[in-house]
Amino acid sequence: MLLAYSTVVCAQNQRGTAKIYLDCNNCNTNFIRQKVKLVNYVRDRKVADIHVLISDLNLASGGRRYTANFIGLTKAYDLNYSIKVDTYQTDSQIEVNQKIANVILAGLMPFLVTKGKLTLAPTLEPIDGELTDNLGENDPWNFWIFEIGGNADYEKESKQEKYELEGRINIERTTELWRIRSEIETEYEVTQVTRDDTTLVSSLKRSKGEFSIVKSIAKQWSAGIFTEVRSTTFENILLGAQLQGAIEYNFYPYPLSATKEFTISYRVGPQYRNYRQTTIYDKDEQELVQQALRINYKVRQPWGNIWARLEGSQYLHDLSRNRLEFETYVSLQVIKGLFLRVGADASLVHDQLYLPKGTASLEEILLNRRQLATNFELNLNFGIAYTFGSIYNSVVNTRL
């Protein structure tokens, strides 16, 4: 049996398990949830016992000061105070995450000691044990989460006008055994430019609906079904639909995903496309079967972060219609104060079956309204930073 060393806190007051609302914009919440194992984190402040509000400011040394405010929201938890921790510019991201987690753990102790029963001990936990859906809390929503949102953007000049509308609906349910996700989103963008007596109007429309259900079938195996329906002017698709089955193997146990993950997955399934314009292959509609193999690798350690993805896909009716994609991001602390960052995104493209006949207009090219024919895509970025000098200046000064 594989074991993980961690610190476990179990908080109980007279009404049961303490509920924590974690409010932090710049935190790795998955890391915190795995390291500070309170019984329940909640998504709504109004149902929480404790509101943990974390803010951050720049320090004169180049680091950041994180302030964790612990606000009791119920009679059983009526304390109100804050704890601060400073990070250095030379800290790696995992060191920053660990400091924030330690502050949260330390800040919760007075609540637990004063109002409840505290169990605090280094614990050996099985990370490959039996998976269950026993989440230990009576939830009237049965762990379903719903989100509805949208936004509008409007810009105007004397000879140019642009507006954009977006809307989305997300529905999700996550347990150890199941992960169910669905999303509907739409985007409509219009740009109008006037030159002399001529007015040019260009628009972009995208709509997509996705649904997936994934089952944990073994300690390091999972399987799922993915569906999608979409319409996009950019890719010349009036109506596209696909259904794929997938299977994934993780070389590391899933509870270690906050610090390391190495997965390989395979997807295969049919697609249907009804095109807006006849394609360069004289197709108005098309039925296809596509397969894809993906390898993901990520590591977060005190010396830095590494993330990489390699994915290959092809259509089974013609294996030459394929695509190979590689993405990576590396951030390394070479020596104290010296950080090296490299990012790359490269693709070999041979699967643009949707391209419409005819040449793209200058308007479509300049405004990026239409996918252009290409056999490769490449994006590279490189960065280096070296910091030296005092690390002990913890002054916060937000003056003009």
Concise structural overview:
The chain has 400 residues and is mainly β.
List low-pLDDT spans: 1-15, 114-127
Share of helical residues:
under 10%
Over the alpha carbons, how many angstroms does the gyration radius reach?
Answer: 26 Å
Cα(first) to Cα(last) distance is 57 Å
Largest sheet: 12 strands, antiparallel
The dominant shape is: globular
Assign the structural class, choosing from mainly alpha, mainly beta, alpha/beta, alpha+beta, or little secondary structure: mainly beta
Strand order of the largest sheet: 9-10-11-12-13-14-15-16-17-18-19-20
Blueprint (SSEs and pairs):
Blueprint: E1 3-13, E2 16-17, E3 19-23, H1 29-35, E4 40-41, E5 50-58, E6 64-72, E7 80-87, H2 93-115, E8 117-126, E9 144-156, E10 160-174, E11 178-195, E12 198-216, E13 221-232, E14 237-250, E15 260-275, E16 285-301, E17 304-315, E18 318-335, E19 338-349, H3 362-366, E20 376-386
Verbal overview:
- There is one protein chain.
- With 400 residues, this protein is mainly beta.
- Among the domains are: 124 residues, Rossmann fold; 130 residues, no CATH class.
- Helix content is 9%, strand content 58%.
- The chain contains three helices and 20 strands.
- The strands form three sheets. Strands 9-10-11-12-13-14-15-16-17-18-19-20 form a twelve-stranded antiparallel sheet, covered by helices on one side. A five-stranded mixed sheet has the order 4-3-5-6-7, covered by helices on one side.
- The longest helix is centred in the N-terminal third of the chain and has 23 residues.
- The N terminus is likely disordered.
